[in-house]
Amino acid sequence: MTEHKTEHVKYYARTLVLPMLLMAAVTYGAGQAILAWPTGEAAVSRGLAADRTSQWNTLTDFGSSLSDTPYIVALTAVAAIVCRLAFHRWRESIFLVAAVWSQSLVFLATTELVDRHRPPVPHLDPAPPTSSFPSGHMSAAVAFYCGIGLILTLHIRARALQVLIWALAVAAPLAVGFSRLYRGMHFVSDVLWGLLLGLACVVMAAWAILYRRERTSPSRQPGRRTAGAAKVT
Question: What is the rounded distance in angstroms from the CA atom of residue 97 to the CA atom of residue 72?
């Protein structure tokens, strides 16, 4: 039993912890590079702020709220429970939680160190204490909505429904990203890096949990699972 636990720890350290540390290091390096070299992104922020209208102010307020932290936390918890009840196993639930919370941990580990100021335009939302880089709203939106999209398309075979699911899964993060730009809360590079971070966390969690396969060690009796490849049920 101790050997089994040790193999589990090694597996998740290799497939989750190490990739997260790598993502944090790369995110920090990218943030420092952006601070060191002028990007000219402030012009984009000023252009969006100059063209604001009351209608778009309202629409982007809704778009930004799609990835507000309280909503993402609540939606992730509800989705994890629904997945457990619907699929009668924990695999999908653990995958979604891992995808969402891994991007959050990487974001929190790097945003204070980068300490990038918000765009020099009027902000339509209260500025959180975290820095502008990367966009936590964007990374959370990608991790949650694309994570849900991946889960659903694995269980739904109708091609038309798969296309619809992914259209919505992609549209939600895009709406969040544009809303954060429009409302003066992030630069373009903040949103783009949030997109990459969210995608990386979905891929990482899918590889480690959702697509994990049972493997039988040659050193063990046929039919027995290896300690490091026990199926998540």
Answer: 11
Sorted by sequence, the CB contacts under 8 Å of residue 73 that are 6+ apart come out as none
Per-residue pLDDT reduced to its tens digit, 164-194: 999 999 999 999 999 999 999 999 999 999 9
Taken in order 52, 54, 59, 62, is the CA torsion positive or negative? positive
- The answer to whether residues 141 and 172 touch, using CB atoms and an 8 Å cutoff, is yes
H-state helical runs in the chain: 2-12, 18-36, 42-50, 54-65, 69-87, 91-114, 136-141, 147-155, 159-182, 188-205
CA pair distance 18, 193, nearest whole angstrom: 19
DSSP string, 81-100: HHHHHHHSSSHHHHHHHHHH
Which residues have C-beta within 8 Å of that of residue 4, sequence separation ≥ 6? 227, 230
> What is the token pair recorded at 107?
């974001």
Q: How many residues does the chain have?
A: 233
Query: Can you state the angle between helices 159-182 and 188-205, rounded to 10 degrees?
Result: 140
The lowest-confidence range among 101-105, 161-165, 181-185, 223-227 is 223-227
